[in-house]
Design brief:
single chain; 234 residues; 6-stranded mixed sheet; 4-stranded antiparallel sheet; 37% helix; binds adenosine-5'-diphosphate; binds magnesium ion; ATP-binding; ABC_transporter-like_ATP-bd
């Protein structure tokens, strides 16, 4: 069983179900990528995994433990980190203050962790005293990821981390995701840049109408003519 599993998830926002039995899992040292059309329920699935949405059916397990009933805050305490799609940095705080905010549940000395994040994202060390709101889109995403990493998570979940950045910055962000997974963290990414994201995916999910349409290695999905035609633009 994988480290994080959302199994047969069903539920939504009170009206009709948005998730219609989808299953998403990711293991430590793996990158899992979720792609699919707009409105497919990708963000909803992430929220369900993180406890921001009550499931009507299905379960979420972490390290084999059922965490379906836990609040997002309790999941953070269990080493889960989630970088939402929008509003994921404090614009009026410096880079350093943003990182400190990420460590709000820690009572130990986190300066070593901050140094590791500066090693991973050297530009953040350079700009540590600058307001996050003054940074470029790609740099803000680095702050958001860095903030999530301050809790030393075993699972890092990212909702469209490359939205609105240039292709070069996207490649850099994906390189950092690979570096993060190599430290043994489970990395789960929702992406619009499906083709590029599947290139770094150990496992890929194509979600449609809240259901799994295709599940395979990133390479296999990229090579599948039906997946290419319907979801990757040919
Ligand atoms: N907070 C919300 N309240 C009600 N409906 C929502 C909410 N967020 C998303 N939805 C609906 O859920 C469906 C799936 O949305 P979402 O999970 O954001 O899709 P995706 O991330 O794949 O684009 C859409 O029909 C959307 O309108
Ligand atoms: Mg979304």
């Amino acid at each position: 069983m994988s480290h994080l599993v959302g199994k047969d998830m069903r539920g939504g926002y009170g009206g009709a179900d948005i998730l219609n039995g989808c299953t998403i899992e990711v293991d430590k040292g793996q990158i899992a990528v979720v792609v699919g059309p707009n409105g497919a329920g990708k963000s909803t699935a992430m929220k369900a995994l993180f406890g921001m949405l009550n499931l009507r059916e299905g379960a979420v397990t972490l390290g084999g433990e059922d965490i379906t009933a836990l609040s997002p805050q309790d999941r953070v305490a269990k080493e889960m980190a989630f970088v939402p799609q929008t509003n994921n940095v404090f614009a009026g705080m410096t880079v350093e203050e943003n990182l400190e905010m990420g460590a709000y549940l820690r009572h130990d000395d986190f300066t070593g962790t901050m140094e590791e994040i500066f090693d991973l994202f050297p530009i953040l060390a350079e700009k540590r005293k600058q307001y996050a709101g003054e940074l470029s889109g790609g740099q803000r995403q680095q702050v958001a990821v860095g903030r999530a990493m301050m809790m030393q998570p075993s699972v890092l979940m990212l909702d469209e981390p490359t939205a609105g950045v240039s292709p070069i910055v996207m490649d850099e962000l994906f390189d950092r995701m690979i570096a993060i997974k190599r430290t043994g963290i489970a990395v789960l990414i929702v992406e619009q840049n499906a083709r590029q994201a599947l290139e770094i995916a150990d496992i890929g999910y194509v979600l449609v109408s809240g259901e799994n349409r295709y599940t395979d290695s990133g390479a296999a999905l990229l090579a599948d003519p039906e997946v290419r035609r319907a979801f990757l633009g040919g």
